[in-house]
Amino acid sequence: MEKLEQLYEGKGKKLYKTSDSKLVISEFKDDLTAFNAKKRGSESGKGALNCKISSEIFKLLEKNGIKTHYVETLDDNLMLCKLVEIIPIEVVVRNIATGSLSKRLGIKEGEVLPFTLVEFYYKDDSLGDPIINDEHALILKCVSSLEVLDKLREIGRKVNDVLRPFFDSKNLNLIDFKLEFGMCDGEILLADEITPDSCRFWDKDTNEKLDKDRFRQDLGNVKMAYEEVLKRILG
């Protein structure tokens, strides 16, 4: 399967048409962005690491009954995916307080939440991807009904139920993560990626951050952190 016309370029990936109208190729980039792309950088090999990490996680989720857009990995940084119509909502699943949650609500960083929290954010870079509630989602026509939002929450929690114990077995705490979904033939599929760009991983023993916060907070060794996550996934 070969790349044809470019369809889209985002912060972390490019999408290309293929000879099959129902399939696209996702090319993972080495670019790093933070704070709505106000901070930019690049790390050679990061795209290939994210492609491999995301591929392994999608395969794990598929084995556990969660339907995704993943088809196969074509190359170091190329993934073949089903073409979906993206739902313009970022679904953020939180287990432990940090980041914007701590800033907004004053919950101490590192505090384990009493239950898994699922939040919705409106996918709009010009607005800074603001947090929204169910009524906002309907007013913005992000979804057709409250039932769709309930389904997104349900799948988000199912993903967490699979990934949290998996990463726990790899001596990593899954702090929080962002999911994106798309519609394909009337079905909701998990799409985009699941990588250290979109998840927060802390080492269980040291609380060392092994994700994009190393770039956000100028901690250094971004690529080494991503390599460590992949090593633990494969190990």
Provide structural commentary:
The chain is of the alpha+beta class. α1 runs parallel beside α6 (222-234). It has helices at residues 46-63, 99-105, 134-139, 146-168, 213-216, 222-234, and strands at 6-9, 13-17, 23-28, 31-34, 39-42, 70-75, 78-82, 85-86, 89-96, 112-122, 131-132, 172-184, 187-191, 199-203. The protein has 2 domains: 6-82, Phosphorylase Kinase, domain 1 (2-Layer Sandwich), CATH 3.30.200; 85-220, D-amino Acid Aminotransferase, Chain A, domain 1 (2-Layer Sandwich), CATH 3.30.470.20. Strands 8, 9, 10, 11, 12, 13 and 14 form a 7-stranded antiparallel β-sheet that branches. A 5-stranded antiparallel β-sheet has the order 1-2-3-7-6. Helices cover 30% and strands 34% of the residues.
Key attributes of the depicted protein:
single chain; 235 residues; 5-stranded antiparallel beta sheet; 7-stranded antiparallel beta sheet; alpha+beta; D-amino Acid Aminotransferase, Chain A, domain 1
